[in-house]
Design a protein that fits this description.
By secondary structure, the protein is α/β, with parallel strands linked by helices. It has a single domain (3-317), classed as TIM Barrel (Alpha-Beta Barrel), CATH 3.20.20.220. Helices cover 40% and strands 18% of the residues. The protein is built from 11 helices and 10 strands. The model has no long low-confidence stretch (mean pLDDT 96). It binds flavin-adenine dinucleotide. Residues 49-50, 52, 95, 97, 124-127, 144-146, 178, 184, 186-187, 192-193, 196, 200, 209, 211, 238 line the site of flavin-adenine dinucleotide.
Length: 318
Amino acid sequence: MKVIDLINKSSKTLFSFELLPPLRGHNINSIYRTIDPLMEFNPSFINVTYHQEEVVYKKRENGLLEKKTIRKRPGTVAISAAIKYKYPSVEVVPHIICGGFTKEETEYALIDFHYLGIDNILALRGDAPKNQRTFTPEKNGHAYASSLVSQITDMNRGKYLDDELLNTFSTNFCVGVAGYPEKHIESPNLAYDMKYMKEKIEAGAEYIITQMFFDNRKYFDFVDACRKEGITVPIIPGLKPICTLKEINVLPQIFNIDIPDDLVKEVMKCKTNEEVFKAGIEWSIKQSRELISFGVPVLHYFSVGISENIAQIAKAVF
Ligand code: FAD
């Protein structure tokens, strides 16, 4: 079933979470170990992230550096299929990105998802590779998520890249996109971001999942700003419980977000990472309860391969 239909037919807040494919060389069982403890809370859908290739330098025996292009977390398509068939009561939402894909390759990936019976996609641009300042699309690839959404919408209308194809099958994907309550890192301001957010919705996206935030006010203001812009689709808050002391410095750098002072104080009071883990759960429970009373359609948790904290939050709020 499509995510938008799940939302529309539910009168209460749904539960969902995001998984990262395991690091290359690891087993798919780590995915099942993350999912299994969360199944008792009836997740409506599970997202699977997509990771593009990155350049790494390996030191050779002669001391010179060897440049290699590798994918550290491959397997999004296969993991999505495995989840779909192992957990038939849950929808799977693979992520698809512009980075590293030509439009042809995007079409092939979408055909694979369609043949696998997957109806949902989260369409993203992807970040610039670690050693580059700006994002560069592939030659004949998409520069922004909005044009990726347009390609999927075209396939939903039976329009493939080769316009000489006859009697084509129309896919039926429900497309979600990303939103940034504290603005995207490259945007000069929130108004700029809003203009392009609207473009993604006009291209056919049916809902938004937000970047993580730790102050619900940021989410409420973002929803207001979207509604003022005429964006009426459901806006799903993305939440991540803090797990370690290090994260209060690292997360703001990676995700362009602020950590509220009260949370920083709570975390700084902790003597061990176990205490931080507990403080992260408590903060997330408070955030989740307030968001439920606000009437959010879904609470979506970024699991980063850990389910113990999300299970405790889900137990407290669902
Ligand atoms: P876009 O919507 O294309 O926006 C990117 C920037 O360009 C913004 O600053 C926007 O304002 C601007 N912009 C957009 N259109 C135009 C235009 N036409 N002209 C000028 N400027 C424009 N990354 C991954 O690699 N894999 C994942 O699986 C993944 N999952 C994610 C899940 C969620 C819920 C979120 C919030 C993010 C995820 N990301 C993932 C990160 C995401 O790829 C990055 O944040 C990326 O930098 C932007 O992606 P986007 O789809 O929001 O891009």
